[in-house]
Structure formats: C-alpha cells, structure tokens
Amino acid sequence: MTTPYPFSAVVGLDDLRLALLLTAVSPAVGGVLVRGEKGTAKSTVVRAVANLLPDVAVVRGCRFACDPAAPDPQCPDGPHEAGAPGVHRPAALVELPVGATEDRVVGTLDIQRALADGVKAYEPGLLAAAHRGVLYVDEVNLLPDHLVDLLLDAAAMGRAHVERDGVSVKHAARFLLVGTMNPEEGEPRPQLVDRFGLVVTVAAPRDPGQRAEVVRRRLAYELDQDGFAARFGGEEKELAAQIVTAQKLLPGVKLPDRELDRIARVCLAYGVDGMRADIVVARCAVALAAWHGRSLVTAEDVADAARLALPHRRRKDPLDPPGTDEEKLEQALNEAENDLPPDEPEGPDGDDDPDGGPPPPPPPPPGPNDDGNGGPPPPASNEPSADAPPADAPLAGDESPRGETAPSRTAGAAPAAPGSAFRPRTLSISHRGEGGHAGRRSPAFARRGRVIGSREPRGKLAGAPHLPATLRAALHRGARSVSPADLREAVHVGREANLVLFVVDASGSMAARKRMTIVKTAVLSLLRDAYQRRDRIGMITFRGHEAEQVLAPTSSHEVGVLRLASLRTGGRTPLAAGLRKAAATIATERRRDPRRRPLLVVVTDGRATSGLDPVTLAPLLTGVATVVVDCESGPVRLGLAGRLASALDADLMPLDTLEMRSAA
Ligand SMILES: [Zn+2]
Questions:
Q1: What angle do helix axes 557-565 and 513-532 make, rounded to 10 degrees?
Q2: Residue 543: pLDDT band by 50, 70, 90 thresholds?
Q3: What are residue 56's DSSP bridge partners?
Q4: What is the average per-residue pLDDT within 305-333?
Q5: Roughly what angle, to the nearest 10 degrees, separates helices 276-291 and 257-270?
Q6: For residue 271, which of 77, 177, 366, 662 sits 20 to 30 Å off, Cα-Cα?
Q7: How far apart are the C-alpha atoms of 199 and 202, rounded to whole Å?
Q8: pLDDT tens, residue by residue, 590-637
Q9: Which of 248, 197, 255, 195 shows the shortest CA–CA distance to 384?
C-alpha cells in the first residue's frame, strides 16, 4: 500500500498546478494537456491532484456514480428515487491505457440482453468510471483519433453517449480530463491540442537549488511515505478546502462586459481561429476569480487565463523563433488594454484595488475569510458557463473547515511573479564587525584587506607583521635590534558576510498584484545580491494572523528565490508577529553561530492591522542592525514605515530608491 505523493510537495511546475486546480474547480474549462519530456513528474502531479478532490457521495449500487442529491435522470441504473441512500468514496482517478478499445472507453452494450432486460445490459466503460473524478491519459498523442474525439466530446458535454444498432445509452460523465504527452514522440494533431482547454509545457527545473529540492523531497518520500505525507497534510487540506470554496463561488462569478470585451480583443489581436479560444479564456478567467475567492473577474484574471489558454492556439509561422507565442501574447494583452475605452468607476489602473471593481474595499478586509479580497456578494450571472456542465455541487458534509485557516505559502491567490532582478544598493551594518565570516557586505576587521593600523598581537601573530609599527616599537624601547616583543601585527579591514534576514509583508495591504510584483522584484534583487556577497539568508512573512518562517536561515539562495516566487499574499497585517519571529530567529542563529552578525531587512508599508503595535516590540530587536524598506505608495501616505524605522533605530529606505541607478 503506497501513500500518494502530496500535491503541495511538488516543487515548481506552477503553471501545471494552477491549470489542474482551475480545471478541478471548473471542469468546463475543458481539460489540460501537459507537454513535457519524460521525468518531469507530470504523472505525479496529475495523480496528486485527484487526492485533492472532495469525496463524492454516490447512490448505493449505482455503477454510474450518481449523486444522491441530484441523480442523473438518464442513468442506465436508474431511475433513482430522490434521497436514495448514498455512500461516500474518494473521487476516482481513472487511467486510460493507450491500447484501450472503444468498448473499454465507452462501455459495452449486449444487444440480445438489452432487448430482453433493457439497458441493464450496458457495461459501463472508463468514461463512467471517471465521472466526478479525474480521467488521465498518458501519451494521449498516441491514442487513435476516434478515441480522442470520444474523450474530448464527453469532457466538453459532461455526458457520454453510446449507440449500438439503434439502442442508445446516455449517462453523465463529467471529469477532469488530463492528457500528457512527450513532444519527442511526435507532435499531436493541431485539432487535438486545440480541443484541450489549457495546454501547459513542463520542463525539468534548470535551477540547481530547485533540482536539489526535488531530489531531497523524493528521497524523503521514499524513506517514509506516511511521515512525508503528514508533513504536507495541512497544506493539502487547505488546497482541498479552497477547491470546494471555489466550486461554490463559481456559479455566482460575474464576468463584466469590459472584461469580455478585453477577451475578444486579445483573441483577435493574437490571431486565433474561430471562437473556441474566447470561450475557453472566459471560462478560465471565471474559474480563476473563483479560485481567488472573488465573485468578479478582473483584468488580471483575463491576462492569466489568456496565458494558460492561448499560446497553443495561434496560427503559427514555422519561422517564428521560440518564445514568440509568449511575446505576441503580451503584445496582444497590451493592445487590448490600450484599446479598451477608459474605465470610469475603477480608477486609473486598479493598482490598489485587487478586485478591480467599485468601490475599493475598505482596508483591512474584515471577517474570517482572510484572503484580502472581500468581493461583493455573488450576483447570479455567469454567462460563459451558462451552457457548461455545472461543477459537482459539494455536499454539506464534504465541506472542510475553511474559516480561520492559517496563512500559508500555498493558500490564497496565485502568487505574483517577481520581475528580473536589478542591482540594489548595498545594505550593510554600519559599525565594524569582528570579521566572523569573510564576505562582501559589512565592514569588519579581517585577515586581509586595507591596513588601517597596527596592534600588539594577542598571543600568536595573526597574519602579517606591521613592519613600521614593529620598528617603531623597537626604537621606542631604545633597542638596536628587533625582539619578538616588538612585533606588531597589521590591522586590516575588509568585508564580512552576514545573516540577511528578510521580513516581508505579504498581507492584503500589499496584495495588489502589481505592488507585490514590485516588492518581490526588490526582494529577489536583494537575494541575488546576498548570494554574491556570500551571506546566509532567511525569510519570514506575515499575513492573516501570524508570521511564518518560509525560509530558515540557509546559504541556499535558490531555495530563497523559489520561496519568494510562490509567496502568497492577502489578509491582515500582523507586523508585530513578523518582528517577534525575526527576533526569535536571530536569537537561535546567534546561539548557532555567534560570530555571524544579523542584518534585518523589513519590507513593509508599516501598516499593522492585526496584533500589537509593532513599535512595542522594538526592545526585542535592540542592537540588531535593521533596514526598513518602505513600500508605501499612492498619493496619500501615512509614513508608518518611518515611524517603525525610528522605533527600531533602523535605516529607512523607500522601495523606489533601492535600485542602484547608474550615474548616467
Ligand atoms: Zn445512477
């Protein structure tokens, strides 16, 4: 008996994971085609997503997985009475083998028995087995065309249809369709690619830290599957609960005309054939809004949906260099933005308004739903999904507790990606250190470097003697020759490496996506800089009700970059909790390595909406060199980061001055 690999333990593959989650929320998005070489963990991720789906209640004895709350009126095992007894079972994961026959897929009908006993003679196939679960086709490009068509038709309609000699059977077959393929084994037909809602290309990570983490987790999993799964149990539960919440929100998500207009313009500018692309983007944007816990589709949702649903739909020019699809898509998105009529109620760019809708949500978002995007109550309109099969109505008993979930890297909105790193100003500890670890950051006494003086050695001579000082000492004594007692050593100053501990505000006040991208870019730049300066790094974030150490102090900067990219935002701002955790981390590291001085970098707008006034925690950080990077933006500024900086006796650096600009 094996324990499945947890979905939340998968490293990287962000697009794939998001695509799978969105399809789990809304199967009408139309399935996911995963392109990737062997050994990219495609199958692991696909199998793992099945474990996140809520358990399903099925009518006892029904081979077609009817929901007791809403049995399929056409069920071949029916009719079921309303309120028929149900049994709970996990959502199915059905794997369709490449050699499967059509009978195996759609089921078999024994005509003679059918004439005698009616439709009971129908043996359900894999489509029936996959109802309300996942249907996984590995190497879908090797599947015969007519089977592929069957699958895709069923996935799109949510129903399967079998006809033999005038006897026909129909049954519900609503499933999350995932096909994987290895492009080295032949490109699939364009019609096949087109018919999948989302296409994601995966590759093995190029980042050494990420690769190491993949292996580390794989080994840990193989050593102790249950223990490993338990480690990620909390995150798995949260994701599962988020799927259920999003499924409930989905029917009420509103797609404003403006965003519909944007979708049409993007698809036109991108040069797609037909209308299918528009519909998939619309459905995907609606699913994204629901996934983010919102009831209104925003421009961001449309852009993200377009990135998942469009790149494989462009009429290709064989001479296009790689990357053209992405480039053209960004162009199309920009054109659409410029061509849209000005938008009155939403403000200039919606920068500080994650919902993109009027009126701006009052800060901080109240209530237990701590996602930082308390949208308006769901209106009852959902144009693009109106003809779509509804997602399974989750049963009351299925709902996992969501209310007061702990903040986590994997909950909340899809994370904003950082931009490319810039060269930041050097943040350093101003007073000279004892030079515990050679590096390139803060000034410190060192074995090498600029000579600033001399001193009597304490015991054995450390490094080179300081000749003039040694001679002076001998002369001063009135001696004619130098004795060992005259020896003076040179005092060098150089640079030492530090522990750079980032405390990053990931709360709702910072959650506007553009804002978070800027903040992440800044932190990414500081991380890169820390790598070059040989520092250790650590990262703490705070949002919701508590602070989280997302990166224990380490010299593995790649992991820091990864953690940063996957950092989720939203919720209240427990700034004090962040500082308290920083103080505890610094105390622990001091015990571990007293010679490494910490430099605390607090990235925040200084606004605290949960917990103590952060200023009261300043005594915990006495003597710790601190820089407050002020992220406040907008015309009205409260200057709270400045207040925090003076309480901490810290340097204050506005975010937009962090980049070292060349003196041109
Ligand atoms: Zn049934």
A1: 180
A2: confident
A3: 89
A4: 75
A5: 130
A6: 177
A7: 10
A8: 888 888 999 999 999 888 888 888 888 889 998 899 999 998 877 767
A9: 255
Please give the structure tokens belonging to residue 621. Answer: 């950080």
Indicate the residue type of 633: S
Catalytic residues: 276
Q: Please tell me the number of Cα atoms within 13 Å of 369 on its side-chain side.
A: 12
Query: Six-digit token pair at 383?
Result: 């144009």
CA distance 355 to 372: 10
In total, the chain counts a number of residues equal to: 664
Burial of 403 (0-12, 13-18, 19+ CB in 10 A): exposed
Rounded distance, CA 16 to CA 200, Å? Answer: 6
| Cis upstream peptide for 205 (omega within 30°) | no
Beta-sheet strand order (sheet of 450-455): 438-446, 489-496, 450-455
Q: How distant, in Å, are the alpha carbons of 408, 509, 575, 583 from that of 543?
A: 9, 10, 8, 17
Radius of gyration, alpha carbons of the chain: 30
End-to-end CA distance of the chain: 65
Whether the CA torsion 78, 79, 82, 85 is positive or negative: it is negative
Residue 663 CA to residue 661 CA, distance in Å, equals 6
145 Cα: distance to centroid of ligand 1 (angstroms): 29
- What distance in angstroms lies between residue 412's CA and the mean position of ligand 1's atoms? 36
Two tokens, residue 476: 């001063």
Sign of CA dihedral 600, 605, 606, 611: negative
User: How many A from CA of 174 to the centre of ligand 1?
Assistant: 13
Q: State how far the Cα of 390 lies from the Cα of 385, in Å rounded to an integer.
A: 8
SS (H, E, C) 435-454: CCCEEEEEEEEECCCEEEEE
Helix (H, G, I), strand (E, B), or coil: what is residue 587?
A: helix
d(CA 436, CA 453): 19
Whether the CA torsion 238, 239, 244, 245 is positive or negative: it is positive
Cα–ligand 1 centroid distance for 157 (angstroms): 18
What's the CA-to-centroid distance between 122 and ligand 1, angstroms?
A: 13
> CA quadruple 423, 424, 430, 436: dihedral positive or negative?
negative
Between 362 and 580, residue with greater pLDDT: 580
User: Residue 26 in contact with residue 243, Cβ under 8 Å?
Assistant: no
Q: How confident is the model at residue 326 (pLDDT cuts 50, 70, 90)?
A: confident
Asked if the peptide bond before residue 79 counts as cis, ω within 30 degrees of 0, the response is yes
How far away, in angstroms, is 142 Cα from ligand 1 center? 32
Give CA–CA dist 397/372, Å, rounded. Answer: 27
Kindly give, in sequence order, each residue whose CB lies less than 8 Å from that of residue 209, ignoring residues fewer than 6 positions away: 556, 557, 558, 559, 561, 562
Per-residue model confidence (pLDDT) at position 352: 38
Distance, in Å, from the CA atom of 443 to the CA atom of 433, rounded to the nearest integer, reads 6
Residue that the structure tokens 């983007």 belong to: 281
Determine the distance separating the centroid of ligand 1 and the alpha carbon of 118, expressed in angstroms. Answer: 15
Burial profile 124-157: b = 16 or more Cβ within 10 angstroms, e = fewer: bbbbbbbbbbbbbbbebbebeeebbebbbebbbe
C-alpha to C-alpha distance for 325 and 259, rounded to whole angstroms: 22
Dist CA 85 CA 57 (whole Å):
9
Q: What is the pLDDT of residues 165-193, one digit of tens each?
A: 666 788 889 888 899 988 777 766 777 77
Residue that the structure tokens 């601190």 belong to: 626
Q: What is the pLDDT of residue 369?
A: 38
